[in-house]
């Protein structure tokens, strides 16, 4: 089709831009995959910096507990409140517990925890490593015969993956507890029916599906946070871009992978 | 045989051809300074010597070993012979001064923290610092950071020390103190050193020989006296700091 200006040059320029953008995206994906391959490779090789892993578990996991608890509690309570409004219209109030349990275990627990940790810990990882990159601290590690991937990336990757698992489990418990509180104490649903319905219709596999998602999301947050930090260029502006990029890409990947994992773990 | 040999090294970043066939040899115990303007490829050259970058063409040979041919383990073993002082000191800001200085010892020896702390105190004394072991890098002045960076560079008893713009960003008196320290360390430790700088006062003072890098090629190599008396218009313009001549400002 001829362009509005009727100029073939216009179309060629447009195609060039599209081609360049596509090439850039594909190159970036390739770099992330290579970064993942190196990270996994160094995860299973000596030496193992256990102290660094514990420190990162504290920073990524322990320090994220308040934000995860708040999010999970709020979500569980709101979910109970909203589903009560809908279910009351056809007399199914007793199923609130089921809805809250299934939603928190299969979907909202892992996804919301993933998004919260991406915003808090993923940004922190990218900013810290980005600053180390632009101030040559990562080069300094190499000159001291220490592999920066092993020393900096592997501990964050392991800690992020493991702690997302535990944070999500905690989020599920708190969210379900919040739903119970609203359903039973505020809205007056029968507590025995509420608990029985929650247990009867929630299977152990639902919990595992959620926790498997959490492991994947944890790996994504650790990988992208470290990748963006490691590939930072320039000064303060570069660190800012890396931080924003880490959060945006991690959140997008979590949401995209959530669909595919849900489809696979159906 | 030279301690460091750079043989016909080429390096490009995308379309930018930064090093265009650099040849340079540094003898054992020698102090070589590479001078050149911003963007001339000095830092890229220095990073090739310690294997932070690898050449697209040519070879870098350190202590008889070709860096390009080394695997991860071999490269790290070779790097243990190096110490490097970075332009901005590059101290690990999450670690204290003694943890920074003793980092290499902690990673590569079985010494206890107490023994490492004793060594770091000695190395810090060697660079003229005391009672700073437990401070954080953010508590130090620019000059003190350079000294701590230098202490870290010599902590593992390096045979080769690389200096990346050692006096940049320092006041003239502190800069001269760092120059004296570099000379003093060389006398005491007998190390081979390579510095890159555009500070001619520093270059004349600390060097046995000076090499001028311009547009990715070595223009001239000579003693400080030979460089002062150069007839090469590019080198002459650079060392006199004149805006008029073959070198144009970016």
Q: How would you characterize this protein structure?
A:
Chain A is mostly helical and 266 residues long. The longest helix of chain A is centred in the middle third of the chain and has 39 residues, at 96-134. Helix content of chain A is 84%, strand content 0%. Chain A has 9 helices and no strands. Chain B is α/β, with parallel strands linked by helices and 250 residues long. Chain B has a domain at 1-76 and 160-165 and 192-250: Rossmann fold, CATH 3.40.50.300. In chain B, helix 5 crosses helix 6. Chain B has helices at residues 42-49, 72-79, 97-101, 103-108, 113-126, 142-154, 172-189, 200-206, 224-228, 233-240, and strands spanning 4-13, 16-26, 31-35, 57-62, 65-66, 82-85, 160-164, 192-197, 209-214, 217-222. The A-B interface holds A 131-132, 135-137, 139-147 and B 47, 50-52, 72, 76-77, 79-80, 82-84, 86-88, 90-93, 103-104, 107-108, 152, 156, 162.
Keywords:
heterodimer; A: 266 residues; mainly alpha; 2 domains; 9 helices; 84% helix; B: 250 residues; alpha/beta; Rossmann fold; six-stranded mixed sheet; four-stranded antiparallel sheet
């Amino acid at each position: 089709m001829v362009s509005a200006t009727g100029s073939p040059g216009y179309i060629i320029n447009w195609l060039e831009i599209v081609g360049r953008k596509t090439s850039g995206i594909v190159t970036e994906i390739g770099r992330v995959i290579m970064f993942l391959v190196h990270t996994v490779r160094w995860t299973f090789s000596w030496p193992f910096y256990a102290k660094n892993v514990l420190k990162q578990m504290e920073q990524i996991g322990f320090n994220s507990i308040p934000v995860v608890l708040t999010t999970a509690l709020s979500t569980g309570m709101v979910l109970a409140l909203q589903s009560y409004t809908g279910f009351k219209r056809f007399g199914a109030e007793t199923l609130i517990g089921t809805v809250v349990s299934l939603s928190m275990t299969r979907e909202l627990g892992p996804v919301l925890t993933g998004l919260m940790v991406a915003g808090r810990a993923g940004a922190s990882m990218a900013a810290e490593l980005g600053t180390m990159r632009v101030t040559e601290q990562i080069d300094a590690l190499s000159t001291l015969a220490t592999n920066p991937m092993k020393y900096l990336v592997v501990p964050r990757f392991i800690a992020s993956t493991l702690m997302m698992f535990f944070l999500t489990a905690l989020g599920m418990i708190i969210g379900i507890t919040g739903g119970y509180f609203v359903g039973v104490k505020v809205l007056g649903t029968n507590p025995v029916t509420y608990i029985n319905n929650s247990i009867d219709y929630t299977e152990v596999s639902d919990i595992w599906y959620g926790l498997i998602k959490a492991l994947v999301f944890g790996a994504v947050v650790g990988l992208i946070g470290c990748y963006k930090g490691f590939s930072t260029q320039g000064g303060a502006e570069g660190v800012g871009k890396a931080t924003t990029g880490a959060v945006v890409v991690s959140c997008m990947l979590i949401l995209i992978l959530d669909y595919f994992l849900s489809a696979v773990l159906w | 045989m030279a301690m460091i040999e750079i043989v016909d090294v080429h390096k490009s970043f995308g379309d930018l051809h930064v090093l265009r066939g650099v040849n340079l040899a540094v003898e054992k115990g020698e102090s070589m300074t590479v001078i050149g303007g911003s963007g001339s490829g000095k830092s890229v050259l220095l990073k090739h010597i310690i294997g932070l970058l690898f050449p697209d063409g040519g070879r870098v040979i350190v202590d008889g070993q070709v860096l390009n041919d080394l695997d991860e383990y071999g490269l790290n073993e070779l790097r243990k012979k190096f110490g490097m002082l970075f332009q901005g000191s590059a101290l690990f800001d999450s670690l204290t001064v003694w943890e920074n200085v003793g980092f290499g010892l902690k990673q590569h020896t079985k010494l206890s923290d107490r023994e490492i702390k004793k060594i770091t105190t000695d190395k810090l004394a060697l660079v003229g610092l005391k009672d700073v072991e437990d401070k954080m890098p953010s508590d130090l002045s620019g000059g003190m950071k350079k000294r701590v960076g230098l202490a870290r560079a010599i902590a593992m008893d390096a045979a080769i020390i690389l200096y990346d713009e050692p006096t940049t960003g320092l006041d003239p008196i502190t800069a001269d103190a760092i120059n004296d320290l570099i000379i003093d360390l060389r006398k005491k430790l007998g190390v081979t050193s390579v510095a890159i700088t555009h500070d001619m006062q520093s270059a004349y003072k600390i060097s046995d020989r000076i090499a001028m890098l311009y547009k990715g090629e070595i223009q001239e190599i000579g003693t400080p006296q030979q460089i002062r008396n150069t007839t090469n218009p590019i080198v002459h313009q650079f060392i006199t700091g004149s805006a008029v001549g073959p070198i144009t400002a970016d």
